[in-house]
Specification:
heterodimer; A: 513 residues; mainly alpha; two-stranded antiparallel ribbon; 28 helices; B: 438 residues; six-stranded antiparallel beta sheet; 13 helices; 16 strands; globular
């Protein structure tokens, strides 16, 4: 223990409670300490002087301590080049700080595609970014090189990156948090679907209802015919939430036995009648709840608050999993005719609700169009904007334009534009120009000022518009009007987004040469 | 001169102003933009009918804007500089409008008046009686302040340091009192305490050392007349009474050389920005410190960047081991290659000599050759090739940046040494790789 440490330990308690001994020194220092306490100053002052003298001596004789640790090995040299385009590196840095996220993803992907690494000084910010954007982790792994992986080992917050390399690490599945387990299953489904299924089968019995449901939801998008037997075996689950997840999954297998059984049941409800000179399809709801239905998770009892009657409720459940094309082929009618036919019958609400759910599930553009043409649907919760999003692009753009020009667009342009950008599809030139023109025209309106969603949506839109429209988006905004002043910050962001996109385009062009 | 992004960032009074300025980067919002050799000006459409008149005098730079903001410079001034940087082509070269002319003229008039007044004051015989009286009052105020400091220190010793461990920032009220007593050097030292003792297992040792050294400073000042002149100068500097710059330039030791900018530390303390630029002479290997203060923003005369070589002449403040210096002429960039760094033992030997000559100088410059970074549970240290470990004072964003640049391989580190700890300011190998972000 150093002399100063001996003294300071005693000073912790306070000289009024316990007398302090000035430590014994030797040589010049002892002499100095002696001199300092020679006068008749108060004890505290003498102690302070001794502390000061010891401090000066120990500092002038500063000798660091021997290290009691070993360092991990240094990072290996990189084999890939650093991004040579400094301007794009600058863009990436700005995007990490302030977004927009959509363009950030695009830039990260572009750099990863051409196998460049980011400059070392950007590594901490990039690694931190991946923590809040796990979906970018694979690209970040590519961008940060060996140095990034080496650095991530030293920081718990960046360990996610290491798991990228060993994502199929069963420890995560066995000991990880729910989110990690779900991610693990999703990844495993890509490489070894059967093993993932087997792990699920083992885990489900010991999980609670919510977890069972969440685990099953991970199968969306990777379902194959050989998964059906497994899913069917679970249909008698105690929880309705889990059964709903299962029926939703089974409905996405149109060739499966489950859908086939439902078709047979629906067939039994259909009959043909001769009216005048034509054959006409008649639908009658089931009279009783069949004993084999429960095995397919058809609910006998209506949930409380259900608008459908008892028989209509059964009919709805039979109709819901059926592919829409089955109705067209079985009845020989197109979607619009089918809607007319349903409306003319006794069970229209059950059918229309089932079809609406099916068209969302199938992302069926023809049916979305038919529903739009046959609007309104009282008693049915139909999101018109969602239907528009399901249309083929050209038709959707036509619909959007008439909505933007329509009387209901005030206060809602931001909301509409948000729906459009969420499609993540570059709009056509004509459409992009028309939308920008419409927004410019209505900018001085009082309603635009309160349309907060517009401020972010327009920046996102600027991320998607074709390069030919850059001039439209950056020029011709009339901000002289005091009512348009609110817009300057948004416009500044649009301008900088377009500049960033131009840099990205320059990079891509230079790379493809 | 033209302003780049770094300059503009430094001129900004805070982050929010710069962010607000970025929201004004819309050429359509600026019906008029112009520039000439002396100034930049523009009209910015605000929420009112009449646009704001924004102007920047490039010499200085000085700002003026007709907006009511109390920030200085305001977002319009910053935005004008950003626009000039990003959209220089949008500025016309027409003669400046009357409001710009008038302002520039009035600035020039003022400057001339000031110069005339200065000549007059210098020519006028000094009123010795008045000056002596001022000095007398000042000295009395300092003595009173030191007495208060001594009393405070005594109380701490009597009641025990343990009490202070629960205080988040011990002594900060005392620091304010020291400023009032015209002892800014002591105030600065006290304001370092929270950082020095934060998560420091030897905090009581650090505080004892600090308290004890302040006591010796009090003792020394009381008998300052008995001490040699150079030590008197060191004492005054430690208390924060710097001597007149003109006097340093005319009487201080003058040294022309090629200087390497080793590193710089810029930080804010109660709205006062402090900049320490550390230099080392090529031929004599001597260290020099440029110490500057600025109220309100971090704008300092001349921007230094670590790793650059500058040919210039410095005038040293008097002292027992002169370190602090002033620029005599305008620095000129030169290309010089880096030389080898001395081993730790020699560096420590020199540190010891500097401390022995002037124990009041803090912090001290120190170069650690071929060091590597080590971290364990947020405790960061430098490992020297001789196998020694030195604890570091470094913020979390900076430490990861430094670790990334090193990649586990040895780096030369320049740091400020204080209380047996190092605050790294720059790092290099064949070239400079990292410098502290402030």
């Amino acid at each position: 223990m150093s002399l100063l440490a001996q003294l300071s330990t005693q000073l912790l308690i306070g000289s009024e409670r316990r007398a302090v001994q000035i430590p014994q020194a030797s040589g010049d220092l002892a002499e100095l300490l002696q001199q300092l306490s020679a006068d008749n100053s108060p004890t505290e002052t003498q102690l302070l002087r001794a502390a000061g003298a010891l401090a000066f001596y120990s500092q002038a004789g500063f000798q660091p301590l021997q290290a009691q640790f070993e360092l991990p090995p240094a990072c290996a040299d990189e084999t890939l080049p650093i991004l040579p385009d400094e301007r794009l590196a600058e863009v990436l840095q700005q995007l990490i700080q302030t977004g927009p996220q959509r363009l950030l993803r695009e830039v990260v992907n572009a750099i990863a595609q051409y196998q460049y690494l980011v400059p070392v000084k950007m590594l901490p910010a990039l690694l931190t970014l991946g923590k809040s954007h796990p979906q970018l982790a694979p690209q970040i792994l590519a961008l940060c090189g060996k140095r990034g992986v080496w650095l991530a080992q030293a920081n718990d917050d960046w360990h996610y990156l290491l798991n990228q390399e060993q994502i199929i690490d069963k420890a995560l599945w066995e000991h990880g948090q729910q989110e990690q387990r779900l991610l693990f299953i999703k990844h495993l489904r890509m490489s070894d679907p059967a093993l993932a299924r087997q792990l699920l089968a083992e885990a489900l019995p010991e999980s609670d209802a919510r977890t069972r449901s969440a685990l099953l939801e991970t199968l969306h998008g990777t379902l194959q015919a050989d998964d059906e037997a497994f899913l069917t075996s679970l249909l008698t689950d105690r929880s309705r939430e889990v059964r709903n997840s299962l029926t939703a999954l089974l409905s996405t297998l149109p060739q499966g036995h489950y859908v086939e059984r439902m078709q047979t049941r629906m067939h039994a409800c259909l009959s043909r009648e001769r009216k005048l000179f034509r054959q006409h399809w008649q639908l009658s709801a089931p009279e009783t709840f069949s004993s084999d239905w429960a095995a397919d998770a058809i609910e006998e009892k209506r949930p409380s608050g259900e608008a459908l009657g008892q028989k209509a409720w059964w009919l709805f459940q039979l109709a819901r999993p059926l592919p829409l094309i089955w109705w067209q082929e079985t009845l020989g009618l197109n979607p619009e005719q089918l809607i007319d036919w349903a409306r003319a019958g006794d069970w229209s609400l059950a059918l229309l609700r089932a079809w609406h759910q099916a068209l969302v599930r199938e992302k069926n553009g023809d049916w979305a169009e038919a529903f739009l043409l046959k609007t309104p649907f009282p008693d049915l919760d139909v999101d018109t904007l969602q239907l528009i999003c399901l249309l083929p692009q050209e038709e959707a753009e036509g619909c959007w334009l008439s909505i933007f020009d329509g009387p209901g667009a005030d206060h809602r342009r931001g909301e509409f534009l948000n729906r459009i950008v969420q499609q993540d599809m570059p709009p056509s030139k004509k459409f992009a120009r028309a939308i920008i023109k419409n927004i410019k025209k209505h900018l001085p309106d009082e309603s635009s000022k309160w349309d907060y969603a517009l401020r972010q949506a327009l920046v996102d839109f600027a991320c998607l518009i074709p390069a030919d429209c850059f001039a439209d988006a950056s020029q011709g905004w009339h901000l002289e009007d005091s009512n348009s002043q609110f817009f300057s910050e948004t416009l500044a962001r649009v301008l900088s987004t377009i500049e960033q996109r131009q840099r990205l385009i320059q990079f891509l062009t230079s790379q493809s040469l | 001169m033209d302003f780049n992004l770094d300059d503009i960032q430094q001129l900004s009074p805070d982050e929010a102003s710069l962010k607000a300025a970025k929201g004004l980067l819309v050429p359509a919002k600026w019906p008029m933009l112009g520039t000439n050799a002396a100034a930049i000006w523009g009209e910015c459409q605000g929420s009112g009918k009449k646009p704001y008149q924004v102007q920047v005098d490039k010499s200085g730079p000085a700002f003026k804007c007709s907006c009511p903001s109390r920030k200085f410079p305001c977002k319009h001034g910053l935005a004008l500089l950003l626009l000039k940087f990003q959209h220089g082509d949008k500025f016309n070269a027409d003669p400046p409008p009357a409001w710009v002319e008038e302002w520039l003229q009035s600035r020039q008039d003022k400057a001339e008046k000031k110069a005339t007044k200065k000549i007059e004051t210098e020519a006028a015989p000094p009123d010795l009686a008045a000056r002596n009286k001022r000095e007398e009052t000042r000295k009395q105020r300092m003595l009173d302040g030191l007495q208060e400091l001594e009393l405070w220190l005594k109380d701490q010793i009597r009641q025990g340091l343990a009490r202070l461990s629960s205080e988040p920032a011990p002594g900060q009220q005392l620091a304010t009192r020291m400023v009032d007593a015209q002892l800014p050097g002591i105030a600065m030292r006290i304001r370092q305490w929270p950082e020095l003792i934060r998560s420091n297992p030897q905090w009581s040792e650090t505080l004892s050392a600090e308290f004890g050294q302040l006591q010796l400073l009090v003792d020394a000042f009381r008998r300052i007349e008995l001490l040699p002149e150079t030590i008197q100068a060191d004492l005054q500097a430690a208390l924060g009474n710097s001597i007149d710059k003109q006097q340093v330039l005319s009487q201080g030791e003058i040294l022309a050389d090629q200087w390497l900018v080793l590193g710089q530390h810029i930080y804010e303390e109660e709205r006062l920005w402090v900049r320490r630029v550390w230099l080392r002479a090529k031929s004599s290997q001597r260290f020099a410190l440029l110490l500057d203060f600025n109220h309100g923003n971090r704008q300092f005369q001349y921007n230094f960047s670590s790793g650059k070589w500058l040919e210039m002449t410095l005038a040293f403040y008097p002292g027992n081991y002169p370190l602090r210096a002033l620029l005599v002429d305008t620095p000129k960039s030169v290309a010089v290659s880096l030389s080898e760094e001395k081993p730790l033992a020699q560096q420590l030997q020199q540190l010891s000599e500097r401390l022995a000559a002037n124990p009041w100088q803090w912090p001290q410059p120190l170069v650690i050759r071929d060091a590597r970074l080590h971290q364990e549970r947020d405790h960061w240290q430098l490992l020297t090739p001789e196998g020694f470990a030195i604890p570091l004072l470094i913020t979390s964003e900076n430490r990861w940046q430094l670790l990334a640049e090193g990649g586990g391989k040895p780096l030369h580190i320049f740091a400020e040494w204080q209380n047996n700890k190092l605050r790294p300011l720059s790092a290099w190998r064949e070239q400079f790789l990292w410098s502290l972000a402030s």
